[in-house]
Amino acid sequence: MKKALSSREEKAVQTRLRILEAGRTIFIEQGFTKTTISQIIKKAGLGYGTAYVYFKNKDELLIELVDELMNQFYQVAERSFVPNTVEEAQSCIQEQVELFLSIAKQEAKMMSVLNEARGVSTAVAKRWSEIQERFIISITKDITFAQSKGLASNHLNPALIARGWFYANEMFMWESVTGESHFSIQEIREQLTYLYMNGLYHK
After folding, report:
1. One domain, residues 128 and 171
2. What UniProt keywords apply to this chain's record, in alphabetical order (predicted)?
């Protein structure tokens, strides 16, 4: 049974949430570079220095917000992948691509902050690298399963193919977030999946 929080602990949890929510708002309004901890504290309606009790700097605060955001993506990437046929695999992969890009588009404001931050913050760039690896590991697992079922070519290196597949999706994700993409999510899903399936899976 989970132990109930004391009033002091509950207050600390609520304060942390206020800081995170204020941080999210200011990051979206100002962008990562222009945002300061002072602005976040003011938005949260807290005393000066309060944020530093919970977060060392704005980089650490953004990383926690990014981790929360990424949970939506992980749910897509790490969903059960146990196809018995190539057709089942293709259906699953198409759905994952569409959901991945759709979430990025829905969360475009925070994703834009992340995109900016990973270019100027060593800590955020490091966390993004860790996030990339988590996705790649998940894709590698799916490819390995497909190979074990005789659906995918065994002469291909699953870790290498997984890396290429993730980076292809990531490129279109950032283009979608920044508004640079001239293609619909459906077009990207169809074309990417076609290339992936015909390069990796047995027909």
Report:
1. yes
2. DNA-binding, Repressor
